[in-house]
Write a sequence for this structure.
């Protein structure tokens, strides 16, 4: 077998949350280019349609599912519909998430805390429960990729909303625990931990707080932020047979930010 054949995803099907924009879009496009069909869920129908159209240009099937997985009841319904209408799912990427607020811990309300936990953690749990559980039951293996963050390992400087750090740390540990449980079933579970990437929310933050972004950039050994397309090759690796022996890993991609 040629080494590049191990990265092919022909005949596989991906389900990705938050797959229409930013990091999710680039991972979906990369996995489609490697041969997989894609089921996308996101809140914005326009960006969903645009990403789905780009996937179809690659010769792959794309299914658009408008929805908000940060709402637990809606997330469970989406998972059930995916399995009934578009299964089986071979690759699950839990990408949806975000900080969304800049509120000091002592001022954060319980409602804000729960909202951010549902967005970053509960959605990951529910998709793993339903779609990962279906992989285990099917008995033919599968790949789960959870998008955590270096914020699950370090505290970000000069910003509030510490529910984000707490949720992403929990995603990393959920990844490890599920990896141990599901390894005998050939379902691998790994996490990607991005550092600073110039997604739309970070571009907005940069415009509002340029001094914070400038300080962040100075602390990156490579000297600049990552671009969303940098995540595509890593997602393809983790989704493919090339990564069959990797599970329970939390892979940092941050330009060296966390090394000092």
């Amino acid at each position: 077998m040629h080494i590049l054949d191990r990265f092919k995803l022909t005949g596989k099907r991906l389900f990705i949350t938050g797959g229409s924009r930013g990091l999710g879009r680039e991972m979906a496009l990369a996995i489609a280019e490697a041969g997989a069909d894609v089921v996308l869920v996101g809140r914005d129908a326009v960006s969903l349609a645009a990403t789905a159209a780009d996937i179809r240009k690659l010769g792959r099937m794309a299914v658009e599912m408008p929805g908000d997985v940060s709402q637990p009841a809606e997330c469970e319904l989406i998972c059930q519909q995916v399995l009934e209408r578009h299964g089986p799912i071979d690759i699950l990427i839990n990408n949806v998430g975000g900080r969304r607020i800049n509120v000091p811990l002592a001022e954060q309300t319980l409602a804000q805390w729960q909202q951010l936990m549902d967005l970053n953690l509960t959605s990951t749990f529910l998709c793993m429960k339903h779609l990962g559980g279906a992989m285990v039951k099917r008995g033919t293996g599968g790949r789960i990729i959870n998008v955590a963050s270096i914020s699950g390992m370090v505290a970000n400087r000069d910003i509030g909303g510490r529910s984000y750090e707490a949720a992403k740390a929990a995603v990393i540990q959920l990844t490890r625990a599920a990896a141990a449980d599901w390894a005998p079933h050939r379902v691998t579970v790994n996490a990607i931990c991005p550092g600073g990437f110039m997604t739309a929310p970070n571009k907005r933050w940069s415009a509002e707080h340029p001094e914070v972004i400038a300080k962040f950039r100075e602390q990156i050994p490579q000297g600049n932020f990552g671009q969303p397309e940098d995540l595509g090759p890593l997602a393809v690796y983790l989704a493919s047979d090339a990564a069959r022996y990797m599970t329970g890993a939390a892979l940092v991609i941050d330009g060296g930010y966390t090394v000092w």
Remarks:
- The beta strands are 13-17, 37-42, 62-66, 91-94, 142-147, 187-194, 250-253.
- Residues 3-252 form a domain with the Rossmann fold fold (CATH 3.40.50.720).
- Residues 110-138 form the longest helix (29 residues).
- The chain has a mean pLDDT of 94.
